[in-house]
Amino acid sequence: MPGTVLLLAASPVGRGCLVDAASVLPVLAAVAPPVLSGTETANVVELADPLEPQAVLTRLRGAATAPGPLTMFVTGQLQLDRRQRLPHLALARTTPATVRYTAFPWRWVADELRLRPPGSTTVFVDLHADTDTWEFLAGRPLTAGPSTELYGRVAPPPSRRTVAQPAYMRAVATLLRSGHRPSPAQLHQQALTRISGEENARPGAADLVLAPGRAWAGQPWPPAPEFTTVTAPPHAPAHPPHPPVPPSVPSVPSVPSVQLPGQAGRRGGSVSPDPHEEITAAVRDGRHDDAFALAARWEREALRTHGSGSEPVLHWMEVRADLAMFAGDAERSCRGWLALAANRLDAGQAPGAPEVESAVDRAHHQWGRIDDPARARELGPELARLRQRVPGRREGALDHVRRQLSQLQTQA
Questions:
Q1: N or C: which end of the chain has fewer CB within 10 A?
Q2: Which of these, 164, 31, 16, 180, lies nearest to 98 by C-alpha position?
Q3: How many angstroms separate the CA atoms of 124 and 139, rounded?
Q4: CA-based nearest residue to 233, from 275, 188, 185
Q5: Is the dihedral of CA 61, 63, 67, 70 positive or negative?
Q6: SS3 string of 222-239?
């Protein structure tokens, strides 16, 4: 039975905009409909910056009454109406004074989905809240009804005169572009891991993370253990023009493809398969060492062909660090992220560059997962030196390293 997918991105026009919601739609639209829905075929309905609440309701009602599984991807911002103090999804014409008339009441989502069979409806959300709504949600977690699986996050208000990016939904979309559709819970956890170093995070305030049966406000360092499942290695369609960048890293300039020696003439001159597919297959089979060795071979070839500090080399270093995370080897992963951050800095990238900050954030996260105190003590000073150069966007990261390192020293 075909599935139905509803893509909804909405935010006000002008100064009241907290998040660039519509920017994620091209990434979601690039995902094959069956992958979006998890079914063999699917119908996709897209709403970009709608103007009227009734237009959203009409599309939602049509999707809710369609047979088969329903998956919704909702990106935008939440505001409270001044009279009833209930959360609404702000639309293009919404202002603080007109929320009740121009925004979409969030309770309508639960109302329209309440009659759907249990287990047939999944909703992913990436929402930003204004100050009033953030305080409201602190004691009243967002829901989408008892029969709907709701995953995602609600982020606090961004800094003044700043428009946030939908990092969680972008991570979800990028993961799905691999062509692999994990379970909703796995996809959710993988996306959370990907945004653990999100540059738009507000100092001192963690996202409210949503999952069936729980709402969790995370801690800056390290992320909560139940949300640390690591994504599979980057994966792209066959014959890519260049190695795809891992999902959490912003796009980089075009990178020439790398080919291992002896591959060009295989199978009668056919084009060699995408190495990411081989790596993904190895990980799925539990052959983590094989996957790591293959990535290391490609890194060595990239180094020989393009030189140290080139994007192909940095790409494969990142893949190897990801693979170590996926295998549960926190020490190896931490070393990989530390080396990647150092290489990016040595290549002339700025300490505030998103790729550099992301690498240091992930090294920090993995350092906190190392079970062996001696190994953690060994890597701690290197992480602290990097944190001095790359403090990141979350307040207190360097202080956290120093405190943890001091505790580890007392255990020696």
A1: C
A2: 16
A3: 21
A4: 275
A5: negative
A6: CCCHHHCCCCCCCCCCCC
What residues form DSSP beta bridges with 78? 89, 129
Residue 212 DSSP code: T
pLDDT given for residue 72 in this prediction: 97
Distance between start and end Cα atoms, the chain: 60
Residues in the chain: 412
3-state secondary structure of 217: strand
* C-alpha torsion sign, points 337, 342, 347, 349: positive
DSSP 30-66: TS-HHHHHTSSSEEEEEEES-S-HHHHHHHHHHHHHS
Q: Backbone phi, then psi, for 150, in 5-degree steps?
A: -110, 125
Q: How far is the C-alpha of 109 from the C-alpha of 64, rounded, in Å?
A: 9
At position 383, the amino acid (one-letter code) is: L
Q: Which two tokens stand for residue 40?
A: 């063999």
Task: DSSP letter for 23, please.
Answer: G
Q: Which residues contact 238 (CB under 8 A, 6 or more apart)?
A: 273, 274, 277
At 158-180, the pLDDT tens digits run 887 788 889 999 999 999 988 88
Q: What does the block give as tokens for 243?
A: 């190695």
Q: Which residue has the tokens 């505030």?
A: 352
Separation between Cα atoms, residue 257 and residue 94, nearest integer Å = 47
Strand partners, 104: 89
pLDDT tens track for 16-73: 898 999 999 999 999 999 999 999 899 999 999 999 999 999 999 999 988 899 999 9
Q: How far apart are CA 246 and CA 226, in angstroms?
A: 22
Quote the radius of gyration of the chain (alpha carbons, Å).
Answer: 22
| Short-list 319, 331, 324, CA closest to 278 | 319
> Which residue has 């190392």 as its token pair?
370
- Both tokens assigned to 357: 């900050």
Q: What is the biggest distance separating any 2 CA atoms in the chain, rounded to whole angstroms?
A: 72
Cα(245)–Cα(259) distance, integer angstroms: 17
Could you write out the DSSP letters of every residue in 77-134?
EEEE-TTT--EEE--TT--TTSHHHHSEETHHHHHHHTTSPTTSEEEEEEEEE-HHHH
- What Cα–Cα distance (Å) separates residue 144 from each residue in 124, 257, 318, 410? 10, 45, 37, 48
Integer Cα distance of 170 and 199 in angstroms: 13
